């Protein structure tokens, strides 16, 4: 069963996760972090920046992004390559040569999935993968109906996901229709999954991922198949969990030697 941590607010969740990541980096400088985009992981990155400002050495840290839009130039402000550079690489002072994003170039897209899988394998995989979850239960850009064994590949974005992401563009029509994303099978190869969700808009998706059946209809439910999962949610996002009191009791009474 996943470890469920219910926090008072996103900032507390970000601090908790960042402290854990910082401890892992101190123990293993060539730590590999799987990074996600969107607003959900921003409190983690903000707290990690404070760790770096306090002396955390991230010069040997590797980072792999979950996904990228197809067809946006690398320098487009909403390409995930730009977003990761702006929100993660530069604020944390990561070595840009160690930060990897799937290739969304239409000219080479046919082999982009295979190349990213090979790069992940050559690195030895991801130590900790940060995940958000969409209102429809998607993780990465694995939309409902995605194979639970899928590898990095091209996907068509649903109307709901494009609508959710339209706030980052000048108009909904500018949101790309396709993406390249790590598959669910790829995500499940990470050593530790940390899924974050904040706000009541994510409550149904969180309940489905944590307490519902494992189903391709709710891609986030794949976390139930993983050996080491931590779900960090605020009270609104936890509001549909039927066993929330039990999750609180488990977390509050876990042995001191257990990590996040």
UniProtKB/TrEMBL annotation:
Site note Part of the allosteric site, residues: 146, 153, 155-156
Q: Pathway listed for it?
A: Amino-sugar metabolism; N-acetylneuraminate degradation; D-fructose 6-phosphate from N-acetylneuraminate: step 5/5
Q: How is its activity regulated?
A: Allosterically activated by N-acetylglucosamine 6-phosphate (GlcNAc6P).
**Enzyme's top EC category:** hydrolase
Gene Ontology biological-process annotations: carbohydrate metabolic process; glucosamine catabolic process; N-acetylglucosamine catabolic process; N-acetylneuraminate catabolic process
List cellular component terms (GO).
cytoplasm
Q: Which reaction does it catalyse?
A: alpha-D-glucosamine 6-phosphate + H2O = beta-D-fructose 6-phosphate + NH4(+)
Record-annotated active site: 67, 136, 138, 143
Checking InterPro entries in the record gives: Glc/Gal-6P_isomerase, Glucosamine6P_isomerase, Glucosamine6P_isomerase_CS, NagB/RpiA_transferase-like
Task: Report the GO molecular function annotations.
Answer: glucosamine-6-phosphate deaminase activity; identical protein binding
Pfam families in the cross-refs: Glucosamine_iso (PF01182)
- Please name the PROSITE patterns in this protein's record: GLC_GALNAC_ISOMERASE (PS01161)
The enzyme's E.C. designation: 3.5.99.6
Q: Which residues form the Glucosamine/galactosamine-6-phosphate isomerase domain?
A: 15-227
Alphabetically list the UniProt keywords: Allosteric enzyme, Carbohydrate metabolism, Hydrolase
**CDD domains reported in the protein's UniProt record:** GlcN6P_deaminase
Function, in words: Catalyzes the reversible isomerization-deamination of glucosamine 6-phosphate (GlcN6P) to form fructose 6-phosphate (Fru6P) and ammonium ion.
Give the family per the record.
Answer: Belongs to the glucosamine/galactosamine-6-phosphate isomerase family. NagB subfamily.
- Record-given protein name: Glucosamine-6-phosphate deaminase
């Amino acid at each position: 069963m996943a470890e469920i941590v219910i926090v008072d607010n996103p900032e507390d969740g970000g601090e908790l996760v960042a402290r854990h990541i910082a401890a892992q980096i101190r123990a293993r400088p060539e730590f590999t972090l799987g990074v996600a985009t969107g607003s959900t992981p921003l409190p983690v990155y903000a707290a990690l920046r404070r760790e770096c400002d306090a002396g955390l050495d991230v010069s040997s840290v590797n980072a792999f992004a979950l996904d990228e839009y197809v067809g946006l130039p690398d320098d487009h402000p909403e390409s995930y390559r730009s977003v990761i550079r702006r929100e993660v690489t530069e604020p944390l002072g990561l070595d840009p040569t160690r930060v990897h994003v799937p290739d969304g170039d239409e000219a080479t897209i046919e082999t982009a999935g295979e190349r990213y899988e090979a790069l992940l394998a050559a690195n030895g995989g991801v130590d900790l993968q940060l995940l958000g979850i969409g209102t429809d239960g998607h993780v990465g850009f694995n939309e409902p109906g995605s194979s639970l064994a899928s590898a990095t590949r091209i996907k068509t974005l649903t109307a709901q996901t494009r609508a959710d992401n339209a706030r980052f563009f000048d108009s909904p029509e500018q949101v790309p229709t396709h993406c390249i994303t790590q598959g669910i099978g790829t995500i499940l190869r990470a050593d530790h999954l940390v899924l974050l969700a904040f706000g009541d808009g994510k409550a149904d998706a969180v309940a489905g991922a944590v307490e519902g059946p494992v189903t391709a209809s709710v891609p986030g439910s794949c976390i139930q198949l993983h050996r080491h999962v931590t779900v960090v949610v605020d009270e609104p996002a936890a509001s549909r969990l039927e066993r929330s009191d039990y999750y609180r009791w488990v977390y509050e009474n876990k042995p001191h030697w257990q990590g996040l």
